[in-house]
Amino acid sequence: MASSLSSIFGAAAQQLQKLLPTRGLALPEVEEARSARQRLEHAPQTQRVLQQTEFLLAEIETIPQTTYTAYRLFRESGERSPYEAEYFLKRARLSAAAASVPRPDRFTRGCTGLSLEHL
After folding, report:
1. Taking residues 12-20, what's their average pLDDT?
2. Residues 6+ apart with CB under 8 A from 87
3. By residue range, what is the domain housing residue 51?
4. CA 3: distance to chain centroid?
5. Mean residue pLDDT across the chain
6. Domain assignment of residue 4, yes or no
7. Residue 47 belongs to some domain of the structure
8. Distance in angstroms (rounded) separating the CA atoms of residues 74 and 67
């Protein structure tokens, strides 16, 4: 039984190997995006977004936690403000941090485990 399974998987691997590109990139758009990163970082629209979100990064280490208790109270009473205030502040700070990833110098406090090697 084990030998028949290995032959099945071996055949599938050989078939998949034929589908791989022999030269060049499998996803050329990824390489294009990597090379365009510098252009995107210095684009006027990117600079505007970074300026508009600067104040959110001042307290990036204190991202509000949305608790189940607050959510449950919202679901039961319909009162949105206690839950949504923390929810939207959390979203705004995380979005600002994500927009700042190409520029880690903009936020270093509270982000000790951040690794940007993959970018």
Report:
1. 73
2. 64, 66
3. 38-107
4. 43
5. 74
6. no
7. yes
8. 11
In 87-97, which positions are buried (b, 16+ CB within 10 angstroms) versus exposed (e)?
bebeeebeebb
User: Closest Cα partner for 83 from 100, 64, 101, 70?
Assistant: 70
DSSP 35-100: HTHHHHHHSHHHHHHHHHTHHHHTTTT-PPP--HHHHHHHHHH---HHHHHHHHHHHHHHHHHHHT
Q: How far apart are CA 49 and CA 45, in angstroms?
A: 6
pLDDT digits (tens, 9 = 90+) for 58-99: 888 888 888 899 899 989 999 888 889 999 999 999 888 888
Count of helix runs (H) and strand runs (E) in the chain: 7, 0
Return the pLDDT at 99.
Answer: 80
Give the chain's domain count. Answer: 1
Handedness of CA 13, 14, 18, 24 (dihedral sign): positive
